[in-house]
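Hi Q.,

Before the meeting this afternoon, I wanted you to have the calcium ion prediction in hand. No need to reply - just skim if you have a minute. The sequence and ligand are here:
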Amino acid sequence: MDRKILKIIPAVLVIFLLTGISGCKSDRDEEFSFKGLEESYTINRFKVLNIPANVPGKLTWSIKDSIISEGSELDFISPYAKTYPLTLKIEQNGNVKTYQSTIIVNKEPGSYSKYIASVLDFRPAIGQFTNEIPEYLAGNTANTMLQKARESLIGSNSTMISLGGFGGYVVFGFDHTIPNMNGRDFKILGNAFWGNNANDPRSGSCEPGIIMVAYDRNKNGKPDDNEWYEIAGSEYFKNTTVKNYSITYFKPNETKLPVPGSEPWQTDIEYIKWQDNQGNTGFKTKNGFHDHSYFPLWISDASYSLSGTRLQNNFYDQSGNGSYWIGKSYDFGYADNAPNNDEASNIDISWAVDKSGKYVKLPGIDFVKVHTGINQEAGWLGEVSTEVAGAYDLYIK
Ligand SMILES: [Ca+2]
Ligand SMILES: [Ca+2]
Ligand SMILES: [Ca+2]
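Predicted structure with the ligand bound:
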């Protein structure tokens, strides 16, 4: 062996030992900076209890035998008034320290509504039910229409609003945080139903809407931009799904000469011009069943744009002659995509992903946004449009 190498080895060893020692020292300092858990914590139902540990190493938070978090801090929420035994295990450099505590969850004073408590925004796309559900009256503004959406959606006697074609949306909130427990946490009501004569099982009037959720992390009562996450439904990771799709609708001249199509119901096949960010453009058709304007009349701009995740078209002509169109229900994770009594109308907050498609762990959610996820006209049925008819927390009985 070369003598030079032999001389180098002890020098390398010394450096390694020095860095090793200094590394240990800093870790130990930070370990000691953790003062341990309180003897107990008290929180009301549906409120998030935050316990920071913020120490290096592998952290494991457990209630009895089940691990509830491996994060540097714990966000704990429960819909049940009960006492939970909490264990925090910290592993550092092969050393394990275990801390015990108790979380006491009390029944809140007063009572929460399980239903929608607020509607923050409503902007439908163009559609045959736009200006009808809810109804536009001359002179109504965006604010008037928002107020009408509130009257429709808030509380237990909610009724339907239509979001129109792709991108039309509504944003609503609850008077408490809906907790993210094991399994599905909340339901969105729509008007989907199975087709009596549909050949495919689980198909009919299914008009899937993309669901976004927000956890009010900074507790300012608002869904801030960085608090939104998309519910990754069954189609999210497929290459047939288009992320960041955007469409622009141009205000039609309602007095222009209509261009009738070959079908008797096609009143004007050049009714509303649209253009998307994928290089496509075309016209939305006005049909003979809806004579009013399909463009939201309270929007005075010459055009407006809507964007978000777009799903593959789900409607097809089962009859082959245009008489019977049918929409296939997607498996899970969408609004107005399955009947209200079907499990597919229930949503698990654990399906939420960030903008890069990575699952996020939310303790719960305070706000929901739904937008129509399909850009398709299904023959005489008209555009596929998501309807929202209410929503509720599955944990409040
Ligand atoms: Ca859940
Ligand atoms: Ca907020
Ligand atoms: Ca519908």
